Amino acid sequence: MPVTTTETARNLLDPGFELTLRPMRYPDFYERYRDAIKNTWTVEEVDLHSDVADLARLSPAEQHLIGRLVAFFATGDSIVANNLVLTLYKHINSPEARLYLSRQLFEEAVHVQFYLTLLDTYLPDPEDRAAAFDAVESIPSIREKAQFCFRWMDSVESVDRLESSADRRRFLLNLICFAACIEGLFFYGAFAYVYWFRSRGLLHGLATGTNWVFRDETMHMSFAFDVVDTVRKEEPELFDAELGGQVTEMLREAVDAELQFARDLCGDGLPGMNTDSMREYLQCVADQRLVRLGFAPVYGSANPFPFMELQGVQELTNFFERRPSAYQVAVEGSVSLTEDF
């Protein structure tokens, strides 16, 4: 059934292309845009020279893990950027939100450049680099993650206007997959491998760049969840038992896909990193995403990685300590320390 609205009762997902920033309907989105501007960094500030020596010291199993990890990085943010342009910018009808999405697209481009630089540094052989860029087709564990994304996100791509409740639910599933599963689970799983190496005194260049990507991705996820909160407030009828079941199923599938990736990366297990510990971590993170979205947790697992517990606070400390030499834009105002790892 079509959703009907009036000029005085506009909602965030109402079709159209609102252009007027005054009066501002969603000032919190504008503040998120301003906060993102303060968080500017460039790939040229990341020093990867020491990583080359570290790579030579890794065991064959660890080198396999790193190769798979950078292959995922090479394609993951491109999926995110495409969805930003083709779906989110198209349907979130708020000029304040579109300001933030424009900034997020820039940040995704920086991430892609960072991962390209990683590939050029870590995989000097052109054939190895070509194989990494072809990971979605050639590496089954990465192909499964990509297929999961397309399965949950593509159903809204052909929708020009969110006229019906069914269309809006499809959009919400796209947005939740985008935020909770790709940025909030797949990338957080990848970050855990990076910080595992860092906890052993290895690959500090990779960890430095990942610190800044981590901060960006946390802000992206928080913005998307704010959009979900806004839609829930404006159209609570969309958040019925069916949607809750679909979101729970989605998170379960995401954990399974990421576990297949973990088996590929970890093999028979590495000291302090194996499939069992990664399973607990992913289940813990999935529960956090479900709770944040207003749904019941399903796993009840605890975080097995102490180096991830402190990551959010450590990154913010580094952000302020390194600002004079590492950042282009001054940081002002307040910063939340409440985001989950």
Largest sheet: none
Put simply, the count of helices is: 13
Order of helices and strands: HHHHHHHHHHHHH
Low-confidence stretches: 1-6, 313-338
Oligomeric state = single chain
On the 0 to 100 scale, the average pLDDT is 88
What structural class do helix, strand and pairing data support? mainly alpha
CATH architecture: Orthogonal Bundle
Q: In percent, how helical is the residue content?
A: 55-70%
Features:
Ribonucleotide Reductase, subunit A; disordered N terminus; mainly alpha; 13 helices; 341 residues
Structure description:
By secondary structure, this protein is an all-alpha fold. It has a single domain (48-326), classed as Ribonucleotide Reductase, subunit A, CATH 1.10.620. Helices cover 69% and strands 0% of the residues. It is built from 13 helices and no strands. Helix 3 runs antiparallel to helix 8, helix 4 runs antiparallel to helix 9 and helix 8 crosses helix 11. It is globular and about 60 Å long. Residues 1-6 and 313-338 have low confidence and may be disordered.
